Sequence to fold (950 residues):
Amino acid sequence: MSRHHEQPDRKQRARTAASDADVLARLREIVGAENVLVDGERVEPYAQDAVKEKFPPEAVLLPASAAEVSAILKLANERRFPVTARGGGVGYTGGAVPVEGGVVVGTDRMNRIREINADDLYVVTEPGVTTYALQQAVEPRGLFYPPDPASYKNSFVGGNIAENAGGIRSAKYGVTKHYVLGLEVVLPTGEIVRAGGRTTKNVVGFDLTGLLCGSEGMLGIITEATLKLLPLPEATRTVRATFRTMREACACVPAFNRAKVVPVAVEVLDRNSIEAVETEFAFGFGAEAGALLLVSVDGHAEDVERDSKIVERVVKDGGGFDVVRSRSREEEEKLWDVRRALSPAIKKFGTMKFNEDVVVPRSRVPELVERVVRVGERYDTFVVNFGHAGDGNIHVNFMCDRDDPAAMKRAREAVREVFAVAIDLGGTISGEHGIGYVKAPYLSMALDAPTVEMMKRIKRALDPNGILNPGKMFT
Amino acid sequence: MSRHHEQPDRKQRARTAASDADVLARLREIVGAENVLVDGERVEPYAQDAVKEKFPPEAVLLPASAAEVSAILKLANERRFPVTARGGGVGYTGGAVPVEGGVVVGTDRMNRIREINADDLYVVTEPGVTTYALQQAVEPRGLFYPPDPASYKNSFVGGNIAENAGGIRSAKYGVTKHYVLGLEVVLPTGEIVRAGGRTTKNVVGFDLTGLLCGSEGMLGIITEATLKLLPLPEATRTVRATFRTMREACACVPAFNRAKVVPVAVEVLDRNSIEAVETEFAFGFGAEAGALLLVSVDGHAEDVERDSKIVERVVKDGGGFDVVRSRSREEEEKLWDVRRALSPAIKKFGTMKFNEDVVVPRSRVPELVERVVRVGERYDTFVVNFGHAGDGNIHVNFMCDRDDPAAMKRAREAVREVFAVAIDLGGTISGEHGIGYVKAPYLSMALDAPTVEMMKRIKRALDPNGILNPGKMFT
Fold:
């Protein structure tokens, strides 16, 4: 049974060797006394992530270098206390939360971009830079860092890599792992390793960047990353359309490709999502709108003009109505307003949102949503579905009252059924959020025993004392 | 010291438990007697790869399923004999060669494409399909599998994944690992694991596909792969130009990006390469041609027209002369003839070709080539440089007489110096070929001790008896 939703707050701090006076004294020597937080109020912000369940650390450490992180981890192995790395702390599965106590290593002070190389298309950065700050730093140089998780204004690049963050642009540009060229990582046992390098092609030894990206802070703490950049596309355009059914809307996705257009993003909203934003913000969608599609293209100015017209034609041919095509950046921003309005709009349906991010082969999205709606009906729980139709990653949001135990129980059961549906449709239980402690009880639904055992063998080989981010992924 | 080039042929077979009568009997039970080859002539084709050094296996096994591969590996652990997986056997570093004897597991019979999904843009294939056959199978459906190692007509998809193969298109499309969605793999200890899935977004547990891709057959044997496809671009165009210097030619590479063009391929040939093809095939290049650039773009028909004109303008502005732009597929093929003529043309410079594939950040290519030329002069060894200017992966070919021990020694020393130069320029010793046994002696030049130790820890955790592909990567 997951702690998630069952034990929502654990106000008392755990007590491990991390709280021993001599350990704290050595930690103060390592990172400087001013960078060791133990006061209740000061550690409070490091106790939770977007899941909003509190697990206060015994101390928060704010190191400034790989050498300091290494010294912390060596001490943690010597004295056996848990260490949990933390970036922006905006994850949805508790990856950065110290569920077994010990120390949190915040990467807040490691926030320098070390090199932007326009000729060789890479950036070298410390982990504590926000995704947004990274994008802002490279774009004036005509460069582009595509991964764009919804939390990009607050998420750190280190966390993006640890969680292999996705986002809206992945239909065309893939996910974080496709941009990781090299990593400096401190292993659980304290050794500093340098995986990968500065080039897309690099086949020297095992691909440790491949293993570390998405390892949820369980195999090492990232202290530097070299990320691949692309030339910044000249322009973007967006087309918005409504459809009678989800099935019609999603049928456009492969049709774009058949028309030789690869959209940057194809976002879909289901009927409940449309009703929610309509009730709250009156965009003017009619009752016949059963699904809404937002489709963006990018490239040369002429290309986006042509490609957005092709998209317009495809959605009209596919039964889309109220079709709007942006002709400027401002018009485009306006079309995306509906997507941005969604999160605030659905809040009124419950104080608790079970925000799951299942993924299926994209042609199965309509069936997924139909079955999710039926699950919601069966468990008498309001559900809103929206997300990335272009890559099959749908955000299923069951809404209920946090203070109604029966409703919470029904919602939890609905979540488990939705995971089963996603797997049945050839997909899996998480496309973007990861496992952490929240989805750990469901891991064995998605992976068979030998596959989980392989992961555990790797974990044990690299973290024999189990000190790095314990209580995650495996139950 | 590498066995490579030192012990060119080892005619006698190793003798391990694999040759025991009872082991062979059990192997015949597992895969069927007709799929166990022990006869000298029949195992001969499985004794070498493109390195052309012979290490005959004690037996060749041709299993038809993951279950059979699993049974072989369990027996190998029980009786402790080496197992080496083999795809097309066209590698350049001996990855598929049984240097310590034992059995070779040939994937020849696992050659079925199981599913081509045009709507969801993936293909499910067995490992024994050639890269070319895979491309041929998907293209009529309007689909595109971009990785294109030079050996694509003979290389197997399984080997491409095991080696994380690159190719000419990687400047735009990346390498094999960017297309691996899911893998079925038999671990060294015989368990069958299923890593990843069918979707680009998948963050359920550690990214085992990331670790396995490029693991050179040392961490598992691939028995099925799910690979991402793209919509097939409508058209391609190529521009060919000569320059006085390598420096001028390579300066065009970032200039294309500044002009918002991302070429599919940017291939460069140095002066010695041009002289070689000119002497042999009389293309008509003048003595002033110090470098040659081949640049391809793809996309919509109109886009490639425009983008190839931009490329033409950039190369002319950058000092290019004798600039030719293809206007049809036939003209394009003709422009690429010079690249295809290269391998046969350089053969006359020696019976032995040390074909190395160093990689540097692409802006450092001119300096790399200048320093390689000086290394060649210092060691009195003819050297030809060509390769992928778009991604910094340059093929350095030292030519000498296989029967001249002094020349061979000089060439080997030159190779080691070139590796040091690549590392000094921020690159590494292999962009495409991998390590195998050939580059194992140089691994520690490119990776520091903790990074190598991390790899070894993973290897030991997954292959405690060291039976899978021993004698590779680590010396």
In short: The mean pLDDT of chain B is 95. The radius of gyration of chain B is 23 Å. The first strand of chain B starts at residue 36 and ends at 37. Chain B has 15 helices and 18 strands.
